[in-house]
Amino acid sequence: MRPNLDTATLVAHFWNDFSLGHVRLPVLPDLAFKLHDLMSEANYEPALVSQALAQDAGVSARLVAAANNVLNRGRVPVATLDMAIMRLGRERTQALANAHLLKQLFHGSPAGKKRLQLHWDLTQRKAVTATYLADLTDSVEPSEPLLLTLLQNLGALPLIDWMERHPDAPHGLNALVELDQAIGTQVAQKLLSHWHYNLDWIDAIGRRESWHYLSDGPLNSIDVSLLASWSELESSAQPGPPLGEVAAFKKWSQACLPATAGIGDLYSEDGQTRLAALAGLLD
In this protein, which residues make up the domain named HDOD (predicted)? Predict the structure, then answer.
């Protein structure tokens, strides 16, 4: 039996296979492209969007549930997809629909099922935390960092599939974590480029765990996603840098946002209750 390869050697093998076209990339559902075409303009037609979304009963049901979630709840319960689209609006409908289409990619392959589930659990926690933090601000639409966080963590999907098929790749979760830490961001950028995402999204993907990155203007979705990632690492075996060194947190503090019981007081009783409720957005 040949010994398992170390991370540096795995990285070299992966990129060699990638250059030869031997790495299988997940396929973005056609519905995501159709939604982009239908909703690229502010004066979109909700009826056409509803017709397109109705093709996927699962996504439609999740949008109705999202419209009744604590983030969006109104006085009148939403019972239909048309009502959900009207309540959520263009940006939130598109982001949440894409989030659930991306979620399907985390659960769509039998290869590496355990790794995929563990990676999804981690990604979901980060995305929900990002949504929670964004909702405390005046400048960030909560669905934007939710979607961004999912996209930032997509690089692990082709890595998992490749590791399952590579004869010398180690099978432990730690090996995936190390490989994802080394090249997951670059792989996610390659994937989004393959899907023809615009350069702004691809650049935003590249900011995953860029702790010293200081964006222009007020807090934005990149800042919030960074803070959510830092919060997830806080209690892990490999925490991020001291919070005072995280550039996004300086902007958070300048905006006079709460940070007594964790960023956004997310460890407070109220924070934990709201996090649990927001988790329903991605159930």
Answer: 25-211
